[in-house]
Amino acid sequence: MTSNNEPTPAPSSGDTMSSVPAGATADTQQDTAQTRQEAATSNSPAAMSVEPVASDSQITAYVKSEIATAAPNSSVDVTTTDGFVALSGSAPSQEAIDQARRAAQRVPGVKQVDASGLMIINQ
Fold it and tell me: Which residues pair with residue 80 across a beta bridge?
């Protein structure tokens, strides 16, 4: 039998519940729930998008640059609407038109290329 004068043993390090105040457990559970909710929100498709969506003006500028390199003797106008690129103007050969079309298709953000507005004009 133990006497009332003996000190009670301190809780062991593995006994976490006895060392946590009663209100702290509810706070910890609420913090955990909030963290889970924030994680779920940050996993939305918009938040997980790695590649930014290019604007039509950015696509147009990049397509013009690519065409200038791929088909340098061509005079090509570029119009972009929602990622759909329309090419118009002239090129010295069908091969130059094909090169311009392929160059436009390589640009990130381009969904479709319409080269029906390009004409062959021998220079």
Answer: 85
- The tens digit of pLDDT for each residue in 14-24 reads 444 444 455 55
Contacts with 19 (C-beta within 8 Å, 6 or more apart), sequence order: 11
SS3 34: helix
Give me the number of domains the chain comprises.
Answer: 2
- Residue that is written with structure tokens 């940050």 in the block: 42
> What is residue 18's predicted lDDT score, i.e. its pLDDT?
46
Residue pair 114/85 in contact by the 8 Å Cβ criterion? yes
Are 36 and 66 found together in one domain?
A: no
User: Would 12 be classed as within a structural domain?
Assistant: no
- Give 4-27 as a DSSP string: TTSPPPPPPTT-HHHHS-HHHHHH
Q: By residue range, what is the domain housing residue 63?
A: 56-120
What are 58-87's pLDDT values in tens digits?
999 999 999 999 999 999 999 999 999 999
